[in-house]
Backbone:
């Protein structure tokens, strides 16, 4: 297929590379042009404009937040204005459900197709083509795009024919991760102040009931206080919890644990923690109990 | 070794059976005598009194709560009064840290030895000798008792030479499980009201980041609303969260997520949920969002 | 002065009437025209368009929410397009700080003046000219408008020369009221389930430390479960708490009690409580404790 | 009447003085004997033992906490062992409902009478005989003791014929005060970080809807950060919130706001705030938002 790829951050560049490797014709666009060089060396074309990346069968957007997606799509020369009829916009960014609904409606009105395909995994999984893809959209569109989804991920989970539901699932996934961070942070504050060795504790729980990667990864970061450089920066985690709460507002679902997480991020950010990994909220329970700084 | 075993509930009977199988001489005691018959058929002796179960190298207590342990130990003819000097009391019940500290001091004063050895696992794991043992106490005592600990569990984690710290770890472990229930309950309320199929959602998360038994088990219970019969009844979960908070009070550690859990259990119990499995608190977020009953 | 008044709801109609009584020349506008008749009978002119209400020295807007204010101000023929240079827009609606900042900037850019003057008090106080006015804006503009502010309120509190700060104060005021409702709701659930007569309890607290109108009013509503007809409907209370949290997000201030209130409103609204008075959240603690419906 | 008074702290000494002034024959006891001298100078007798203070028509206990009351009452030579049949024990301490129930049962079993009569007010009100008395107990006992209750307070509120309900009311009263502190703390953190002058803000709210002493007193303490010397020390506030939660546990009433308060006190005490006034928890929201220390 002939496709465009917009957004070459740490996730996007790995995803685009894997699509290229799978034999597709890829035109890439990034606001900061220098990030295209490696992909161009690998055979991609560099687009001068967003519109130039929208002349094929599909365009994938992988951007930082709602504002970036809105700007790229709704610009006068943006995706919506440039994509051919029948072509597909695959949105892989972690965005809010309200924007996903608006995108779906806009593309339908423009006789284009739209699927939400947010991904689960860190940059190394993106580079290895080992992401998990959470897909939402018309069955036919997802089937047509499956060669692309297969190129970026190890498995695609089709959640719904309503695109925004895939975004809701992705947000809830990040909420679950943040909940693990909070619960580990509280447990470690408790046993640590009680005199138990945190490393030994972590070994115990991650080799028994909590033998999942998410406990090992985040437990290690919290115990070692390894919050820099950020794998996933606190402002992004904060953004995702706010998007989760916005969806919950819309649906009328009280989420007390999500509220707690929101306050943790606010506290961290108010104390200049904007450059830290989001797991740094897991250190706040220790601070509140008078341990360390 | 010659040992006594007090408390033949669903956990204790499996543990005692495995010690018996390992070739030790076991005298069992249970308040309700009928529960001893199967073990007696397997070669155990039935004690008429608590004191009769305290005449060997060690006695293991596996009881429902602090009150039961206190009564068995501090009775005039109880464990403390009956155990020979140098013999070991192994406390496997999930009790509070304050009681564990009191037990340790009492046994030292009586020239007896004491170790805390709470276990992780459900009744089926107890029957299979596949529990995890969290041990706290003097190194020598734990070493001397290792044949017994090996008989009941697949692995022993020695956490500290202070017995009560093993109890703190066990409480924090149950707090972590309850946190998983809460976070799953909120996530399921959100995506469910948003129109996503809960079963498909569960499949997604448990085959990606949350591929741990604890998410599969509790996710399945919540989605299927299979809260009866209770594997671990709500009042016991409530008790453990209260013991966690009591330890946190003592140590001056604020635990907002544990508070939320306490309120969930109170809400469940206030609505006559005392016979349900503790995972039933994971249905409250759906209720608060106006879904189902 | 010659002034316009836009928004003749239960609050606005009382305010406009008092300005008229104070001898000013008043032109009123309301989306639903029928609401103007009583004021016209009293000497006011009815404007056909928003623009017609913007031809004097000042225009006061008193509308239900941010969306209504935005529409009235930023419409092509709206306040911003119609108000003469140097004239003053007095915004008395309870709106968010972000919108207030945007309004301030827009009016400056258009060489108009802007003050925020949200009010405290119920419709009966508005009718009696006994509101409290919370004013923010340039000193000179507030001084010039003081005859109007004096006409609608018993006292004006000038909080800042930045208009949006008056809105922040108003939001925090409603947050404090909702906090009173929550705390009373919890206290009443506790003593009620404990067997104490709620009426006698209320008499005690409101004649000792809590002898403020806010405790008497809301305590009476909760104990009597008099939630219909709504004096201030739950969706409005929910809106104000959300605006409070939005301001807190912007300023990076964690507000756990405001989060709790947000969840209370969500729970109420999810259970079809949209027509009830906002004090109905004060009944939820009793429900969670298994009392009544 | 001939009465004993046990516990001459800052509250008790004022109360005892007023009973003396009212013409009763008073025998006082305090663990630290020196505190009796002023009252003896005023005509009281000093008891050598608790028993010596229990030989009249009634004995009043005004002590710091449950432990002190338990020790004074259940000592071998304590109140229970010493009070004549038919005489009345008036317990004015702020104690838990469980202890109040136990005291009531003990006194009935000993053919003595018991009323709970906790008081509302600070030491200056105690000195002036201007406390509010919250009474619970048999109607006849309260009537017989009314001359004493009238001597210490400006008004007696009879809440129930079950003594412990008066204690429940007193605890809920302190919960309401702490809720005011929390809500003011959050509001002040918000408007303060938003650039509003806290003093002016306080003037506004306390001269409008929140014109109650409790807002003036605590608002002033928080804004001025006047937490030393403590009028009511943080550990006492913490104790009362814990007793409130213990009563709520017993009654199965979830109290999320009380949980938040518990965590605030834990955070304060973990940071060595044990000597501060309990209103110091009202400074924590500002700290969490990155303002000041």
Residues:
């Amino acid at each position: 297929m002939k496709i465009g790829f917009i957004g070459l951050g740490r996730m996007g560049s790995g995803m685009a590379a894997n699509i290229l490797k799978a034999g597709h014709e890829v035109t890439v666009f990034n606001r900061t042009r220098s990030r295209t060089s490696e992909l161009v060396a690998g055979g991609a074309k560099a687009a001068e404009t967003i519109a130039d990346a929208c002349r094929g069968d599909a365009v994938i957007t992988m951007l930082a937040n709602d504002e970036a997606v809105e700007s790229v799509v709704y610009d006068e020369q943006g995706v919506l204005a440039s994509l051919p009829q029948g072509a597909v916009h695959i949105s892989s960014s972690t965005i809010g459900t309200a924007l996903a609904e608006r995108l779906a409606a806009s593309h339908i009105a423009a006789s284009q197709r739209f699927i939400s395909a947010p991904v689960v995994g860190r940059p190394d999984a993106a580079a290895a083509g080992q992401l998990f893809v959470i897909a939402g959209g018309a069955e036919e569109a997802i089937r047509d795009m499956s060669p692309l989804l297969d190129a970026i991920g190890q498995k695609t989970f089709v959640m719904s024919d309503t695109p925004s539901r895939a975004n809701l699932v992705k947000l809830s996934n990040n909420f679950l991760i943040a909940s693990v961070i909070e619960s580990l942070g509280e447990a470690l504050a408790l046993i640590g102040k009680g005199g138990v060795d945190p490393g030994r504790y972590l070994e115990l729980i991650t080799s028994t009931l909590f033998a999942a990667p998410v406990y090992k990864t985040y437990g290690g970061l919290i115990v070692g206080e390894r919050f820099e450089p950020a794998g996933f920066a606190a402002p992004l985690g904060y953004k995702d919890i706010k998007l989760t709460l916005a969806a919950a507002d819309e649906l009328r679902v009280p989420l007390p644990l999500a509220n707690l997480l929101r306050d943790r991020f606010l506290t961290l950010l108010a104390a200049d923690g904007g450059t830290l990994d989001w797991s740094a909220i897991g250190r706040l329970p220790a601070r509140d109990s008078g341990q360390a700084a």
Notes: Strands of chain B lie at 2-6, 25-29, 45-46, 58-61, 88-91, 113-116, 119-120, 131-136, 153-160. Residues 163-193 of chain B form the longest helix (31 residues). The mean pLDDT of chain B is 96. Chain B touches chain D at residues 242, 248-249, 252-256, 259-260, 262-264, 266-267, 269-270 (CB under 8 Å).
